[in-house]
Design brief:
- This protein has 15 helices and two strands.
- With 332 residues, it is an all-alpha fold.
- It has a two-stranded antiparallel ribbon with strand order 1-2.
- Strand 1 and strand 2 form a beta hairpin.
- The longest helix has 29 residues.
- The termini are far apart.
- It binds fe (ii) ion (FE2) (2 copies).
- The site of one fe (ii) ion has 6 residues, from helix 6 and helix 9.
Length: 332
């Protein structure tokens, strides 16, 4: 999901070494991108473009993979069989998104092992949203509705991003994300129309997830080194603030329909702008979570590392099987 905040850290990379590129090839590359042509793995590309994409796609993959953890915690506690089956499918989808994206990044010349190592050692980042805990069942509704909803806002423009394998992965991912958003909203609808205790649980989840969801779009445009380069290369197609505003405009009427209150006293429809005005985001909290100080950041990384280590025998067995098969085919 969840890449905009991470893009900010990539901007510095893009300033690198363009003057060392062959000017003719660079001009031809930029003309193709400007014409909305897709760049494919075997095409020539500037080194800074390749590096920026490796970071962006791998961080996106890490976010999908770590994103399985907050909801995975609730699979055994889903309130009925239908909810359990839906949640299992949803968490599995996120694992699949991670795999498409790791595979897309590998086409740029980095290995899966290098990416995983960067995540586990803390060098690579993932979206801040997954460092918040899931305290009640209503959090599963709020995550689908708000977190997957914000992911869709971020990801729809990426279907037209300039790197072909990334853009094509996003087409499929976006279809699944919209199912995720709807299943979350349906949980919220059930709770909001349930008993007083259920309604309170839904409101509490909205109270806790609203602001971190707005942070998913990354820092405000004025603090975001949104270089002309990134836009010119069609890696970024809409600004953080534009996407955040879109999300607020779409989501507030959905909260109204649920009979829930968005926890922002400054939230107000602005007739003149044709948008909702909303209150200030706590950027100190955002940067603290980016630095790894999120409420459950340590637990998340411990769980990922354990899953990787526990899965070693499966990877070894698959590699041994592939080798044996290869030898058999060669012998035939
Ligand atoms: Fe996803
Ligand atoms: Fe999702």
């Amino acid at each position: 999901m969840y890449t905009t905040e991470l893009k900010e850290r990539n901007q510095a990379v893009q300033g690198l070494s363009l003057e060392r590129e062959d000017p003719e090839r660079l001009a031809a590359f930029e003309a193709r991108v400007a014409a909305d042509d897709f760049i494919e793995p075997k095409d020539w590309m500037p080194e800074a473009y390749r590096k920026t994409l490796i970071r962006q796609i791998s961080q996106h993959a890490h976010s999908e993979s770590v994103g399985m953890l907050p909801e995975g915690n609730w699979i055994t506690r889903a309130p009925n069989l239908r909810r359990k089956a839906i949640l299992l499918a949803k968490v599995q989808d996120e694992g699949g998104h991670g795999l498409y994206l790791y595979a897309a990044a590998e086409t740029l010349g980095i290995t899966r092992e290098e990416m995983i190592e960067a995540l586990h050692s803390g060098r690579a980042k993932y979206s801040t949203i997954f460092n918040y805990p899931t305290l009640t069942w209503a959090d599963i509704g709020a995550i689908g509705w708000l977190v997957d909803g914000a992911a869709i806002m971020n990801q729809v423009p990426l279907q037209r991003t300039s790197y072909g394998p990334y853009a094509r992965a996003m087409v499929r991912i976006c279809k699944e994300e919209s199912f995720h958003q709807r299943q979350g909203y349906e949980i919220m609808m059930t709770l909001a129309n349930g008993t007083d205790a259920q309604k309170r649980m839904a409101q509490d989840a909205l109270d806790r997830w609203w602001w971190p969801s707005l942070m998913m779009f990354g820092p405000p445009d004025e603090n975001s080194p949104n270089t002309a380069q990134s836009v010119r290369w069609r890696i970024k197609r809409e600004t953080n603030d534009e996407l955040r505003q879109k999300f607020v405009d779409v989501t507030v009427p959905q909260a109204d329909a649920l009979g829930l209150v968005v926890p922002d006293p400054k939230l107000k429809w602005n007739e003149e702008r044709g948008h909702y005005d909303f209150g200030d985001i706590d950027w100190d909290e955002f940067y603290a979570v980016v630095r790894g100080e999120g409420p459950v950041a340590k637990e998340r990384m411990t769980a990922r590392v354990k899953a990787w280590e526990d899965g070693k025998w499966v990877r070894d067995a698959a590699a041994a099987h592939a080798e044996k098969r290869g030898m058999r085919i060669a012998a035939e």
